[in-house]
Fold these 3 entries.
Entry 1:
Amino acid sequence: MTRKKRIAVLLAGAFLGMSLMLGGCADKNTKINEGMQAIEKLDYDAALALFEEAIVAKEDLELAYRGQGLCYLGLTDYEQAITSFEKALSNAGMFVSDVEVDINYYLATAQYKNGNNAEALETLNAIAGMREKQAEVYYLRGLIKMESGEYENAVSDLDRALAGSKGEPMMAIRIYQVFADYGYVQEGKSYLSSALKNHEDKMTDYEKGTVYYYLEDYESAKSYLEKAKSDSKKDDADIVLMLGKTYEQLGDSNYAASVYMQYIDNVGPHPAMYNQLGLCKLEVKEYEAALNAFDSGLAIESGNDYVQQLRFNQIVAYEYLGEFERAASLMNGYLASYPDDAQAVREYEFLRTR
């Protein structure tokens, strides 16, 4: 997975967790409230229709456009998300409240995901320090600075993000991933070790398992993640994915594949599960099965933050199947969507020679 692909997925998890806290409260915002409930169920199309009704009915326009922007973020339509968040801010009051700070954070997220790093930083700079803690604001700003090569400034912001989260283990894990994605694995591991040292007694089995996974202690990771899975009252996608990846690292791709398939059978289609399942099938040289998994993942349209990964891995599967002309055609389309993917550019040059 390239750095940009991984980071898009990292941000996706953060977005929904914050998106529901400022929904419309007043009785007059009936459609807005219903729209936020639809977002919580990841039913973005229904939510968009509800927010459009709210706009026509002249409910709170700031909150209606905010909700609309959250839908487009969930649908990975970042241009539309930016437009909606800007409309939300244009309908704000004279004084800056938590709502405007929140909207600016999501605007920056959409700008970053759309490749507008400079604009995202400008938006984040405008709200940084306006409220206490702001862990997500400093995390996103640190991430962008790391990508831009501003290592010291990135570390400063990521440290502020961790402090703002009061050392929350999942924030430490996310910070580790930023360091690792840019080649600073050992520096990132120091955050994981500190999380264990200072917060292990308060960490869930899932958090412990994830930390041990990234510390490359896969046996300990398996132990904690198996316990987390058995104690969970329902199939938790995060637990299942991490457990499957642990089995992959332990060299048991077949069992990992069965973990992903069990989730799909029990819960339903899930883009990340299909992506990992496909990678497992590639590992054991079942290339048709791998392609079927990636195709199944791409067939999931709503809220699919794995489209880029799935498209790239689909091309790899066609390569392994010897269908180089098909792979080259798909890669041409892929690069039109993701021109900055250096790995894909190199792969395309290879395909053109076949």
Note: Residues 6-10 have pLDDT under 50 and may be disordered.
Entry 2:
Amino acid sequence: MNIAKELLIEKAKHGYTICHIGTCPLHNQCLRWHVGQHVPHTVSSCTSVNPHFEDVATADCPMYRSDQKVRYAKGMTRIFTSDMPKRMEPAVRQGVISLTNRTYYFEYRNGSRLIPPTLQEHIRDLFRVNGWTADITFDNYIEDYDW
């Protein structure tokens, strides 16, 4: 874990859901726990994980967020190439919109919203389902935490 203390404090000040369950088997690798350790003494209240919620503080904790960076895609303006069939773009666009929504689709497309790894794979699947077998490359990639 090499997350800057300043970043953890910023997240804590801006309403990130934190966790204080030190007995959780995942706490040493959990962003929520690390942020919880850096809540400034000037913050009087914060949003916290309910310790009584189902499966919290277990190996299957639904609130767990890994402290390892993941590879986000940024933008997909060049994802549709000239050698693709013309039907490919509307089919993939509609597929992404059905997975998320229209606004998100355009934010993902222009790069103002990062595309998480799971959605990247869903987009690749949409291309495969529509008959495209070549590799899909997004505009850019960024490593960041999955807050």
Note: The first strand starts at residue 70 and ends at 74.
Entry 3:
Amino acid sequence: MNLFLDNKSGTPIYEQLYAQIKAAILSGEVKADEALPSIRGLARDLRISVITTKRAYDELEKEGFLYAVPAKGFFVAPKNTELLREEHLKQIESHLSEAVRLAAACGVDKAQLSEMLDLLWEE
């Protein structure tokens, strides 16, 4: 898993780390029960604060993507299919909201947008 941080993005570093690890888990790049780098090791490799790394890991644990084993570290939680489905539904809603916003800005009505979706669905 390669992690890249952009100090110029305006997005807090812990959020960048959180989003990239979460994406790696959802995509299957990182498998269930696979150990993540230690908090200290990752902080050292990325040249960031241990607190920043811990915050990202804690958020992922809180959302059910990771679990902690005392004295062993953090591991990828087995995929909860309902959690995964909910995450995908949130992404779909976000994309559809953006499509509706763009359609309204271009004067595309609901029927035309629906027709576009139907055509895309058939592909």
Note: The mean pLDDT is 91.
